[in-house]
Amino acid sequence: MDSYIKELIKRRDLLIYLVTSGLKAQHRNSFLGYFWWLLDPLLGVVVYYFLVAVLFGHGGEAYGVYLVVGMITWRWLSTTTMSSAKAITGQSGIISQVYLPKIIFPLGTSLTQLVNFSFGLVIIALFLVYFKIMPGVEILWLPFIMFIQQLFLLAISLTLGYISVFIRDIENVLSHLMRIWFYSSPVIWEADRIPAKYSWLIDINPASAFLISYRNIFMHGSNPELLKLLLIGTASIIVIGFMIYYYNRNEHKIIKAL
């Protein structure tokens, strides 16, 4: 396992290439190009703001900030999850020709989406200025929350990247599961509106911990949900460690399946 990790470190140039090429490929043939990194999450916010605040009359004065934090956080989670399903299968041409630690591909996918999220932070900052909300010193928790979410998403990426090699239908199933996860998380609706008998959905939902934590530091001047984040981070590290071991022992099966 040590030699496998050393081999992965030696391939860090390839990892950087995978991240940069992944970013370029997203909007390579579009007219607006890289501007879509900002425009895409902004359009999603506008659609749901019109639906919830304008059409149905829900949400308070700062609902715009509440929504933009939720949508951009969810966008990072959902795009990483969906793209991880084809992180390895989409690189079958390279894998069949050159020996590489296969774990590098889902790792590159998760890091690419981390960069995308950083552009979403620009949109959040613009909304905070527009709604005249000034975060307090709690904003210093931002790197910690991002780090825990990155660990969580890396654990998902490594797991889905491997499973999808052998179960090709998983991408189709994921689209439906992600839709359920979206509507059961306080992305567009406010967490305190949920009936008490369903409050357990918030407690067991990792996405809720991230959403509430980001909103706490951006909007409410309070600390993130530290205990839940630490539990998520610990579980994610365990899964990541196990998946590194599993990739190391079973990479030959990936080559045969591809």
UniProtKB/TrEMBL annotation:
Limits of the ABC transmembrane type-2 domain: 32-250
GO biological process annotation, one example: lipopolysaccharide transport
Membrane topology recorded in Swiss-Prot or TrEMBL: Multi-pass membrane protein
UniProt-recorded Gene Ontology molecular function terms: ABC-type transporter activity
Keywords: Cell inner membrane, Cell membrane, Membrane, Transmembrane, Transmembrane helix, Transport
Residue stretches spanning the membrane: 34-56, 114-133, 139-167, 229-247
Highest taxon in the source lineage: Bacteria
Main location as per UniProt: membrane
GO cellular component term of the entry, any: plasma membrane
Short name of any one Pfam family annotated for the protein: ABC2_membrane
Subcellular location: Cell inner membrane; Cell membrane
Coiled coil location: none
InterPro entries in the cross-refs: ABC2_TM, ABC2_TM_bact-type
Similarity comment text for this entry: Belongs to the ABC-2 integral membrane protein family.
Protein name stated in the entry: Transport permease protein
Organism whose genome encodes this protein: Desulforamulus aquiferis
